[in-house]
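Response to reviewer comment R2.3. The reviewers asked that we include at least one raw input/output pair. We reproduce the pair for Alpha/beta hydrolase family protein here without editing.
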Amino acid sequence: MRAASIFALIWIVIPTFAEAQSASAKPEYFNQKVADSNPLRNEQARELDDYIKLMAADRSRFQKLFQPDYSSPAAFAKSAEPLRAAFCASIGYPPPGKQPDKPATYTKIGEDSIGVYYRAMFPILPGVHSEGIFIVPKSAKGKTPLIISMHGGGGSPEVALFNGGANYNDMVRGAVKRGFLVYAPQHLFRADEFPKDIRRQIDDRMRLIGTSITAVEIAKITYAIDELIQRPDVDANRIGMVGLSYGGYYAQVTPAVDPRIKVSVSSCYFGVQEGRYAKDELSVPSDFRFQDRITLFNDADIVALICPRAHQIQAGSRDNASHRETGKQLAPRAAAFYEKLNLKDRFEHVVFEGGHEFNDAAAWVFVEKHL
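Raw output as returned:
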C-alpha cells in the first residue's frame, strides 16, 4: 500500500516538474521575425500606388466642381466660377499680405523710332515689386490696348526685347509695331547672387506661408494691371497677353484667373506637364506640382477658365516632341468649350513650322482679330 502511494506520488510530481520546466523555457513576450511582415509592407505600397493612379484618372471630382452652362457665353463664364475659385485656392492666390500704398514708378530708359521705353515698378506685396519694361508706341493716340508680354524660363524682358529677341522673335516689339502698349514683366528664374535652384527654394518656402511662386507671379501681372489701367493712355477693356515656354504657362494661368485679359497666346507650353506626368509623375517641376494640378487643373481644363475669351495655343513642328504631342491630344477637349458655344473662331491650336520659338505670324493676326 505504501509502495503504491509512493508510485502514485511520483506520477503526480513528474508531470508537474515537467510543466514547470516547460514554463520556464517560454519567452516573456511574444516575438516574430520582422521580415515575416515584409509582404504586408509591399502590399501597402502597391495599394497606394494603385490608388494614386485611380484618382489621377478619376474625372468625377472635376465634373462635380465644374458643371458648364452652354446656354450663353455669360452663363458659361458664370458656371466656371467654382472652378476658378478652386484653382485660386490650390495655388494660394491672392498671396497673403497687404498691397503697399505706394505709387507705381516709370523711369525712361530709351527711345527709338517706334516707341519710348520705361523701367516700370509696381509695389504689389510687402517689400515686393512687379518690375519690367513698359513701352509706349509713338503711334498711340488716346486710349490704347495693352499687351502683357511674358518671357520664358531662361529669359528676361531684355532677352525677349533686345538684340533681335532670340527665340522670342517679335513677341515684344511686334505689339509695339502694331500700336499696342506693352508691359513685359520680370519673373524669377535665376539671380547671380543666389543658388541656381533659387526658384525652387523660394517656391518651397512660399508654400509654407500659404501661397506659391505661381500665385505671386500671377499677382505680379494682375496687380500691375490694376495700376496700368489707371493710366489715361490704357484702354482697360482691351488687354491681351502673350508668352513663350514658361511665359506660355503664364499666358494660360493668368487669363484663367483674371477675366480682364480678353485674348491670350500661349506658345510652346500646352500639355508639357501632362506628358511628363504620364511618363514619371515626379519629373514634373516642383512649381507645377500644386494641389490637384493633374486631377482638376490640367491644361485642357484650365482653358475652361479662359473661355469664352479668345485663346490661341502654339507648338513648333521642330520643337521637342514633349512640347507638342501631348498638347495635340488635349487640344480637342479645350476646343470643345468654344465649339459648344458656337465660338470656334475664338480658339486656335496652331502647329507652326519652327522650333521652340514664338510664332509672330499666327499670334498677331489672332490678337488683332480679338482685341
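Residues 147 and 240 are 5 Å apart (CA to CA). The longest helix spans residues 2-25. Further pairs are available on request from the corresponding author.
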